[in-house]
Amino acid sequence: MDWLLHAGDDPVQKLLLMLIAIALFVGLMAVILFVVDRPRNPPRWFVGFGFIGVALLLLTLGLLYPAVSTIGKSFLRRNSDDFIGLDNYVRAFTEPQFLIVLGNTALWVLVAPLIATFFGLVYAYLVDRSRFEKVAKGLVFLPMAVSMVGASLIWKFVYDFKPAGVDQTGLLNQFLVWLGGEPQQFLLLDRPWNTFLIMNVFIWIQTGFAMTLLSASIKAIPTDIVEAAKLDGVSGFGMFWRITIPSIRPALVVVLTTIAMTTLKTFDIVRTMTAGKFDTSIVALEFYEQGFRQQDAGMAAALAVLLFVIVIPVIVYNVRQMRKVEEIR
After folding, report:
1. How many CB atoms are closer than 10 A to CB 305?
2. 206 burial type by CB count under 10 A (0-12 exposed, 13-18 middle, 19+ buried)
3. pLDDT tens, N- to C-terminus, the chain (329 residues)
4. Boundaries of CATH 1.10.3720.10 in the chain?
5. Chain centroid offset of residue 248 CA
6. Is 0.90 surpassed by the pTM of this model?
7. Which of 24, 33, 213, 321 sits between 20 and 30 A of 145, alpha carbons compared?
8. CA triplet 263, 267, 268: central angle to 5 degrees?
9. Phi, psi of 84 (to 5 degrees)
10. CA atoms of 289 and 281, how far apart (whole Å)
């Protein structure tokens, strides 16, 4: 069976390994179905366990065990088995390096979802039922088709810097030169301005997501409510603020919380733009740096646990809001 350990060296062995895995899966499912179907009147719990047992096992091995293991490692020193209690968590909330990381993460969670949702909402409202609605929405949704890394590379060229007197390749610096200004190294600006510039990449992508969901919610507003508001003399901004916003509030909260959760795992944008340098790192990137670059598995695990703790209330609130949306429908 040693050839299984080196299956990556030979395409034929790869194919055989894949076929063996498929055969094992089919055989396992056949055994489960046979056992479940064998009794004439099996108890419900037996049938249910037969169908979801494999899924529960895989979830335990792929989700529960790694979570418990990560929590355990967060109380250890680096890659050793030395128990140090809450020292890693104390470091995360006291050392300047990690305080900057936590501050940047808070900025991402608070600022990026608000701006992306605001732009998406306003744009969806303005182009709703317009003559060029499909084209206008397609242009804003287009960045969603670009990967995070691809979008980061695009914006990295936008921010590209060349010394004064040299032809600028960065679009933003070229505009500054045309206006008589000096080119700037935007990603090297003081914190938090460089962080806000990196957020532009995320906002550029997520605005299309917010616009799509909120546009569908706006179209779902009953026409009788709109007509009644018009008869009462409501129009323009009043229609937007008094009718549209209250009517789509549950969907608005879902969009905000969903984008907020996405910011917590925004690893690739920061990694591509600055690799966390110039005080731009966030938790999702820092626990990677600590675990794989600094070889400090304990600190990396503590940061991962912190990220998990942060995202739990957001997920719970998001699920509640989604249920409210379903109840309204």
Report:
1. 20
2. buried
3. 454 445 555 677 777 877 887 888 787 777 766 765 665 666 677 667 767 777 777 777 777 888 888 888 888 888 777 888 888 899 889 989 889 999 999 999 999 999 999 999 999 888 887 788 888 888 888 888 888 999 999 999 999 988 887 888 888 988 888 888 888 888 888 888 999 999 999 999 999 999 999 998 888 888 888 888 888 777 778 888 888 888 888 888 889 888 988 898 888 899 999 988 888 999 989 888 888 888 888 888 898 898 888 888 877 877 777 776 666 55
4. 88-328
5. 23
6. no
7. 321
8. 115
9. -125, 10
10. 10
Which of 101, 159, 154, 148 has its CA nearest to residue 268?
Answer: 148
Query: Residue type for 24, please?
Result: L
At 276, the amino acid letter reads G
Provide the CATH topology of domain 88-328.
MetI-like fold (1.10.3720)
> What is the rounded CA–CA span in Å between residue 256 and residue 111?
11
What's at 321, amino acid-wise?
Q
Neighbours of 117 (CB within 10 A): 26
Q: Tell me the Cα Rg of the chain.
A: 26
Tally Cβ neighbours within 10 Å of residue 73.
21
Instruction: Give the H/E segment covering residue 303.
Output: helix 297-328
Longest dimension (CA), the chain: 86
Q: Among the residues of 38-132, which ranges form H helices?
A: 44-59, 65-73, 87-94, 96-127
Our measurement of the distance from residue 269's CA atom to the centroid of its chain's CA atoms, rounded to an integer in Å, reads 11
Rounded CA gap, 306 and 316, in Å? 16
Alpha-helix residue ranges (DSSP H) falling in 147-276: 148-158, 171-178, 193-219, 223-231, 237-239, 245-247, 249-264, 268-273
The Cα–Cα gap between 236 and 153 comes to 39
Q: Which of 247, 248, 266 is nearest to 104 (CA)?
A: 266
Could you give the C-alpha distances from 259 to 125, 193, 205, 223, 253, in angstroms and in order? Answer: 19, 21, 11, 29, 10
